[in-house]
Design brief:
Elements (H helix, E strand, L loop, with lengths): L13 E8 L4 E3 L15 E3 L3 H6 L9 E10 L6 H16 L2 E7 L5 H11 L6 E4 L12 H12 L9 E5 L2 E4 L4 E2 L8 E2 L7 E4 L2 E4 L20 E5 L7 H8 L4 E6 L7 H10 L5 E5 L17 H6 L3 E2 L5 H13 L4 H11 L12
Parallel strand pairs: 1-4, 1-5, 5-6, 6-7, 13-14, 14-15, 15-16
Antiparallel strand pairs: 2-3, 7-8, 8-11, 9-10, 11-12
Helix pairs in contact: 2-3, 3-8, 5-6
Protein backbone atom coordinates (compact mmCIF):
# COMPACT_ATOMS: atom_id res chain seq x y z
CA UNK A 1 0.00 0.00 0.00
CA UNK A 2 1.38 3.40 -0.96
CA UNK A 3 1.85 6.07 1.66
CA UNK A 4 -1.25 8.24 1.92
CA UNK A 5 -0.25 11.79 0.95
CA UNK A 6 -3.57 13.59 1.56
CA UNK A 7 -2.94 17.12 2.79
CA UNK A 8 -5.06 16.60 5.90
CA UNK A 9 -2.73 13.79 6.93
CA UNK A 10 0.55 15.55 6.18
CA UNK A 11 1.12 16.37 9.86
CA UNK A 12 0.86 12.75 10.96
CA UNK A 13 3.97 10.62 11.55
CA UNK A 14 4.85 7.79 9.18
CA UNK A 15 4.57 4.19 10.37
CA UNK A 16 5.67 1.18 8.34
CA UNK A 17 3.75 -2.08 8.72
CA UNK A 18 5.66 -5.21 7.73
CA UNK A 19 3.63 -8.40 7.39
CA UNK A 20 4.82 -11.94 8.01
CA UNK A 21 1.44 -13.68 7.92
CA UNK A 22 -0.12 -15.54 10.83
CA UNK A 23 -3.68 -15.65 12.18
CA UNK A 24 -4.12 -11.91 11.71
CA UNK A 25 -3.68 -12.50 7.96
CA UNK A 26 -5.76 -15.65 7.63
CA UNK A 27 -9.01 -16.26 5.80
CA UNK A 28 -10.87 -19.04 4.06
CA UNK A 29 -8.99 -20.19 0.98
CA UNK A 30 -9.62 -17.83 -1.90
CA UNK A 31 -11.19 -15.14 0.29
CA UNK A 32 -8.46 -12.65 -0.60
CA UNK A 33 -5.36 -13.19 -2.65
CA UNK A 34 -4.16 -16.67 -3.49
CA UNK A 35 -4.01 -19.46 -0.95
CA UNK A 36 -0.57 -20.85 -0.24
CA UNK A 37 -1.93 -24.34 0.14
CA UNK A 38 -4.37 -26.63 -1.68
CA UNK A 39 -7.70 -24.81 -1.91
CA UNK A 40 -9.50 -28.00 -0.91
CA UNK A 41 -7.93 -27.84 2.55
CA UNK A 42 -10.56 -26.84 5.14
CA UNK A 43 -9.88 -24.11 7.65
CA UNK A 44 -8.33 -20.67 7.31
CA UNK A 45 -4.93 -20.10 5.78
CA UNK A 46 -2.55 -17.11 5.60
CA UNK A 47 -3.64 -15.24 2.47
CA UNK A 48 -3.99 -11.54 3.39
CA UNK A 49 -1.21 -9.13 2.49
CA UNK A 50 -0.20 -6.39 4.93
CA UNK A 51 -1.75 -3.77 2.66
CA UNK A 52 -5.12 -5.48 2.97
CA UNK A 53 -4.92 -5.42 6.77
CA UNK A 54 -4.20 -1.70 6.73
CA UNK A 55 -6.88 -0.91 4.12
CA UNK A 56 -9.51 -2.68 6.24
CA UNK A 57 -8.81 -0.38 9.19
CA UNK A 58 -9.74 3.22 8.23
CA UNK A 59 -9.11 4.48 11.80
CA UNK A 60 -5.39 4.14 11.18
CA UNK A 61 -5.68 7.34 9.13
CA UNK A 62 -6.34 9.20 12.38
CA UNK A 63 -3.07 7.99 13.91
CA UNK A 64 -0.42 7.82 11.21
CA UNK A 65 0.41 7.80 7.55
CA UNK A 66 0.90 4.10 7.02
CA UNK A 67 2.87 2.30 4.38
CA UNK A 68 2.63 -1.48 4.31
CA UNK A 69 4.24 -4.44 2.63
CA UNK A 70 4.40 -8.17 3.21
CA UNK A 71 7.71 -9.94 3.69
CA UNK A 72 6.12 -13.38 4.11
CA UNK A 73 2.54 -14.66 4.29
CA UNK A 74 2.96 -17.85 6.29
CA UNK A 75 1.90 -19.38 9.61
CA UNK A 76 4.47 -18.39 12.20
CA UNK A 77 5.39 -22.01 12.92
CA UNK A 78 7.04 -21.95 9.48
CA UNK A 79 9.19 -18.88 10.16
CA UNK A 80 12.92 -19.38 10.62
CA UNK A 81 15.90 -17.37 11.81
CA UNK A 82 16.56 -16.11 8.27
CA UNK A 83 13.02 -14.70 8.10
CA UNK A 84 13.48 -12.83 11.36
CA UNK A 85 16.84 -11.43 10.28
CA UNK A 86 15.27 -10.37 6.99
CA UNK A 87 12.52 -8.63 8.91
CA UNK A 88 15.12 -6.90 11.07
CA UNK A 89 16.91 -5.52 8.02
CA UNK A 90 13.62 -4.40 6.45
CA UNK A 91 12.65 -2.62 9.67
CA UNK A 92 16.01 -0.84 9.75
CA UNK A 93 15.50 0.37 6.18
CA UNK A 94 12.02 1.66 7.02
CA UNK A 95 13.21 3.45 10.15
CA UNK A 96 16.01 5.08 8.16
CA UNK A 97 13.47 6.19 5.55
CA UNK A 98 11.33 8.59 7.62
CA UNK A 99 9.31 6.02 9.60
CA UNK A 100 8.72 7.16 13.19
CA UNK A 101 8.14 3.53 14.10
CA UNK A 102 7.75 0.08 12.57
CA UNK A 103 5.02 -2.49 13.23
CA UNK A 104 5.44 -6.17 12.42
CA UNK A 105 2.38 -8.39 12.12
CA UNK A 106 2.89 -12.12 12.50
CA UNK A 107 1.45 -15.32 13.92
CA UNK A 108 1.40 -15.74 17.67
CA UNK A 109 2.85 -19.27 17.81
CA UNK A 110 6.43 -17.98 17.62
CA UNK A 111 5.79 -14.31 18.36
CA UNK A 112 7.64 -14.26 21.69
CA UNK A 113 10.73 -15.87 20.15
CA UNK A 114 10.78 -13.63 17.07
CA UNK A 115 10.25 -10.52 19.19
CA UNK A 116 13.10 -11.44 21.52
CA UNK A 117 15.56 -12.09 18.69
CA UNK A 118 14.62 -8.75 17.13
CA UNK A 119 15.07 -7.07 20.50
CA UNK A 120 18.55 -8.53 20.97
CA UNK A 121 19.65 -7.05 17.63
CA UNK A 122 17.55 -3.86 17.25
CA UNK A 123 19.99 -0.95 17.30
CA UNK A 124 17.73 2.04 16.69
CA UNK A 125 15.67 4.34 18.92
CA UNK A 126 12.53 4.08 16.78
CA UNK A 127 9.93 1.73 18.29
CA UNK A 128 9.74 -1.71 16.71
CA UNK A 129 6.35 -3.11 17.69
CA UNK A 130 5.19 -6.69 17.17
CA UNK A 131 1.54 -7.69 17.11
CA UNK A 132 -0.79 -10.39 15.81
CA UNK A 133 -4.16 -11.92 16.54
CA UNK A 134 -5.64 -14.82 18.46
CA UNK A 135 -8.83 -14.85 16.37
CA UNK A 136 -8.75 -14.82 12.59
CA UNK A 137 -10.65 -12.11 10.67
CA UNK A 138 -13.66 -14.32 9.95
CA UNK A 139 -14.34 -15.08 13.63
CA UNK A 140 -16.74 -13.02 15.76
CA UNK A 141 -14.75 -10.65 17.94
CA UNK A 142 -11.64 -10.85 15.76
CA UNK A 143 -8.90 -9.03 17.66
CA UNK A 144 -6.52 -8.33 14.80
CA UNK A 145 -7.81 -4.86 13.87
CA UNK A 146 -7.75 -3.62 17.48
CA UNK A 147 -4.26 -5.03 17.99
CA UNK A 148 -2.97 -3.42 14.80
CA UNK A 149 -4.47 -0.04 15.74
CA UNK A 150 -2.94 -0.28 19.22
CA UNK A 151 0.44 -1.28 17.79
CA UNK A 152 0.51 1.70 15.43
CA UNK A 153 -0.52 3.94 18.35
CA UNK A 154 2.49 2.70 20.32
CA UNK A 155 4.79 2.99 17.30
CA UNK A 156 4.13 6.74 16.98
CA UNK A 157 4.44 7.46 20.71
CA UNK A 158 7.52 9.49 21.64
CA UNK A 159 7.53 7.72 25.01
CA UNK A 160 8.06 4.41 23.18
CA UNK A 161 11.39 5.50 21.72
CA UNK A 162 14.51 3.85 23.08
CA UNK A 163 12.58 0.98 24.66
CA UNK A 164 13.68 -1.65 22.16
CA UNK A 165 11.16 -4.11 20.77
CA UNK A 166 7.67 -4.03 22.24
CA UNK A 167 4.82 -6.51 21.92
CA UNK A 168 1.29 -5.10 21.82
CA UNK A 169 -1.62 -7.50 22.32
CA UNK A 170 -5.04 -6.91 23.87
CA UNK A 171 -4.05 -3.25 24.52
CA UNK A 172 -1.21 -4.33 26.81
CA UNK A 173 2.34 -3.23 25.98
CA UNK A 174 5.00 -5.78 26.88
CA UNK A 175 8.77 -5.80 26.78
CA UNK A 176 9.97 -8.41 24.30
CA UNK A 177 12.40 -9.61 26.97
CA UNK A 178 9.62 -10.70 29.34
CA UNK A 179 6.51 -11.44 27.30
CA UNK A 180 5.29 -14.99 26.82
CA UNK A 181 2.23 -16.74 25.41
CA UNK A 182 0.47 -18.47 28.27
CA UNK A 183 -2.82 -19.56 26.68
CA UNK A 184 -3.45 -21.37 23.42
CA UNK A 185 -6.52 -19.42 22.30
CA UNK A 186 -7.49 -16.57 24.67
CA UNK A 187 -7.27 -13.01 23.39
CA UNK A 188 -5.42 -12.32 26.66
CA UNK A 189 -2.85 -15.01 25.91
CA UNK A 190 0.22 -12.78 26.22
CA UNK A 191 1.52 -11.90 29.66
CA UNK A 192 4.74 -10.86 31.36
CA UNK A 193 4.65 -13.08 34.40
CA UNK A 194 7.55 -11.75 36.46
CA UNK A 195 7.21 -8.06 35.64
CA UNK A 196 3.76 -7.33 34.24
CA UNK A 197 3.27 -5.21 31.11
CA UNK A 198 5.31 -2.02 30.79
CA UNK A 199 2.36 -0.05 29.47
CA UNK A 200 -1.17 0.09 28.18
CA UNK A 201 -3.02 1.68 25.28
CA UNK A 202 -5.67 3.76 27.04
CA UNK A 203 -8.20 5.95 25.25
CA UNK A 204 -6.12 5.91 22.10
CA UNK A 205 -2.86 6.83 23.82
CA UNK A 206 0.18 4.76 24.73
CA UNK A 207 0.71 5.06 28.48
CA UNK A 208 3.92 3.61 29.91
CA UNK A 209 3.78 2.47 33.52
CA UNK A 210 7.34 1.28 34.05
CA UNK A 211 10.76 1.21 32.46
CA UNK A 212 12.88 -1.95 32.50
CA UNK A 213 16.66 -2.00 32.05
CA UNK A 214 17.70 -2.41 28.42
CA UNK A 215 20.88 -4.14 27.33
CA UNK A 216 23.03 -2.89 24.48
CA UNK A 217 22.32 -4.63 21.15
CA UNK A 218 24.29 -7.80 20.52
CA UNK A 219 26.83 -8.04 17.71
CA UNK A 220 25.18 -8.92 14.43
CA UNK A 221 25.22 -12.55 13.25
CA UNK A 222 27.94 -13.51 10.82
CA UNK A 223 26.37 -13.74 7.33
CA UNK A 224 25.27 -17.30 6.67
CA UNK A 225 25.76 -18.45 10.27
CA UNK A 226 23.01 -20.78 11.47
CA UNK A 227 24.08 -22.62 14.63
CA UNK A 228 22.04 -25.60 15.79
CA UNK A 229 20.77 -25.15 19.34
CA UNK A 230 18.71 -27.92 20.93
CA UNK A 231 16.06 -27.40 23.61
CA UNK A 232 15.31 -30.35 25.90
CA UNK A 233 12.86 -30.51 28.79
CA UNK A 234 13.44 -32.52 31.95
CA UNK A 235 10.63 -35.00 32.61
CA UNK A 236 9.70 -37.65 35.15
CA UNK A 237 11.78 -40.80 34.61
CA UNK A 238 14.23 -39.04 32.30
CA UNK A 239 17.34 -41.23 31.87
CA UNK A 240 19.25 -38.74 29.72
CA UNK A 241 18.81 -40.66 26.47
CA UNK A 242 17.58 -37.62 24.53
CA UNK A 243 20.52 -35.58 25.75
CA UNK A 244 22.85 -38.36 24.67
CA UNK A 245 21.32 -38.30 21.18
CA UNK A 246 21.71 -34.53 21.01
CA UNK A 247 25.36 -34.84 22.00
CA UNK A 248 25.87 -37.37 19.23
CA UNK A 249 23.99 -35.18 16.75
CA UNK A 250 26.64 -32.49 16.67
CA UNK A 251 24.56 -29.59 17.98
CA UNK A 252 26.39 -26.32 18.65
CA UNK A 253 24.63 -25.65 21.94
CA UNK A 254 21.96 -27.03 24.25
CA UNK A 255 19.34 -25.49 26.53
CA UNK A 256 17.96 -27.73 29.27
CA UNK A 257 14.53 -26.77 30.61
CA UNK A 258 15.08 -28.21 34.06
CA UNK A 259 12.73 -28.92 36.94
CA UNK A 260 12.00 -26.15 39.44
CA UNK A 261 14.90 -23.79 40.09
CA UNK A 262 17.27 -25.89 37.95
CA UNK A 263 17.23 -29.62 38.69
CA UNK A 264 17.66 -32.76 36.58
CA UNK A 265 17.92 -36.49 37.27
CA UNK A 266 21.24 -37.94 38.40
CA UNK A 267 21.77 -39.78 35.11
CA UNK A 268 21.21 -36.58 33.13
CA UNK A 269 23.59 -34.62 35.36
CA UNK A 270 26.41 -37.02 34.61
CA UNK A 271 25.87 -36.67 30.85
CA UNK A 272 25.79 -32.88 31.18
CA UNK A 273 29.21 -32.94 32.79
CA UNK A 274 30.59 -34.67 29.70
CA UNK A 275 28.87 -32.28 27.28
CA UNK A 276 29.76 -28.91 28.82
CA UNK A 277 33.39 -29.29 27.83
CA UNK A 278 32.38 -29.39 24.15
CA UNK A 279 29.48 -26.95 23.70
CA UNK A 280 27.69 -24.36 25.84
CA UNK A 281 24.88 -25.94 27.87
CA UNK A 282 22.32 -23.56 29.39
CA UNK A 283 20.35 -24.26 32.57
CA UNK A 284 16.81 -22.81 32.52
CA UNK A 285 13.62 -23.50 34.46
CA UNK A 286 10.70 -25.20 32.76
CA UNK A 287 8.16 -23.68 35.18
CA UNK A 288 7.25 -20.59 33.17
CA UNK A 289 7.87 -18.06 35.94
CA UNK A 290 10.76 -17.23 38.21
CA UNK A 291 14.37 -18.08 37.51
CA UNK A 292 17.01 -20.66 38.26
CA UNK A 293 18.83 -20.65 41.58
CA UNK A 294 22.57 -20.83 42.10
CA UNK A 295 23.33 -22.20 45.56
CA UNK A 296 20.23 -23.41 47.42
CA UNK A 297 20.36 -27.17 46.73
CA UNK A 298 23.41 -29.41 46.75
CA UNK A 299 22.35 -32.89 45.59
CA UNK A 300 23.55 -34.48 42.35
CA UNK A 301 21.49 -32.87 39.61
CA UNK A 302 20.78 -29.73 41.65
CA UNK A 303 21.52 -26.25 40.34
CA UNK A 304 24.67 -26.04 42.47
CA UNK A 305 25.92 -29.36 41.10
CA UNK A 306 25.05 -28.51 37.48
CA UNK A 307 26.74 -25.12 37.56
CA UNK A 308 29.84 -26.79 39.01
CA UNK A 309 29.76 -29.16 36.02
CA UNK A 310 30.00 -26.19 33.67
CA UNK A 311 26.39 -25.31 32.84
CA UNK A 312 25.50 -21.65 32.27
CA UNK A 313 22.55 -20.23 34.20
CA UNK A 314 19.71 -18.71 32.19
CA UNK A 315 18.54 -16.87 35.30
CA UNK A 316 15.12 -15.36 34.63
CA UNK A 317 15.14 -16.19 30.92
CA UNK A 318 12.68 -18.92 30.05
CA UNK A 319 14.03 -21.86 28.01
CA UNK A 320 12.77 -20.60 24.65
CA UNK A 321 14.36 -17.20 25.08
CA UNK A 322 17.54 -18.74 26.45
CA UNK A 323 17.75 -20.70 23.19
CA UNK A 324 17.27 -17.50 21.16
CA UNK A 325 20.01 -15.72 23.11
CA UNK A 326 22.42 -18.62 22.74
CA UNK A 327 21.69 -18.83 19.00
CA UNK A 328 22.37 -15.12 18.56
CA UNK A 329 25.65 -15.33 20.46
CA UNK A 330 26.86 -18.39 18.58
CA UNK A 331 25.82 -16.84 15.26
CA UNK A 332 27.99 -13.83 16.09
CA UNK A 333 30.97 -16.03 16.93
CA UNK A 334 30.97 -15.42 20.70
CA UNK A 335 33.41 -17.43 22.77
CA UNK A 336 32.66 -19.13 26.09
CA UNK A 337 33.60 -16.12 28.20
CA UNK A 338 31.35 -13.80 26.19
CA UNK A 339 28.46 -16.27 26.35
CA UNK A 340 28.75 -16.56 30.13
CA UNK A 341 29.01 -12.81 30.64
CA UNK A 342 26.06 -12.08 28.38
CA UNK A 343 23.82 -14.65 30.05
CA UNK A 344 24.77 -13.18 33.43
CA UNK A 345 23.54 -9.77 32.26
CA UNK A 346 20.51 -10.75 30.18
CA UNK A 347 19.31 -13.49 32.50
CA UNK A 348 19.57 -11.49 35.70
CA UNK A 349 16.75 -10.15 37.79
CA UNK A 350 14.93 -7.23 36.10
CA UNK A 351 16.54 -4.85 38.63
CA UNK A 352 20.07 -6.00 37.74
CA UNK A 353 22.10 -2.96 36.73
CA UNK A 354 25.18 -4.70 35.42
CA UNK A 355 25.94 -4.29 31.73
CA UNK A 356 28.05 -6.13 29.20
CA UNK A 357 30.21 -3.96 26.96
CA UNK A 358 29.42 -5.32 23.50
Amino acid sequence: MDLDTDLEMAHLPVVSVLGLGGTIAMASSGASGEASQDSSTPGVQPVLEAGALVAALPRLREVARVRARSLRVVPSASLGFADVLGCLEAARVEAADTAAGVVVTQGTDTLEECAYLLDLLWDRDEPLVITGAMRHPEQPGADGPANLLAAVTVAVARSARGRGVLVVMDDDVHSARHVTKRHSSSTGAFVSVDTGPVGRVHEGTAVFLSALPRQAPLPQPVPGADPRVALLEATLGDDGELLRLVAQGGFDGVVVAAFGVGHVATATAELIGDLTGRVPVILASRTGAGGTSRSTYGFIGSERDLLARGMISAGFLDPRKARILLWALLAAGADDARIRATFAAHGGHPDLRDRVDH
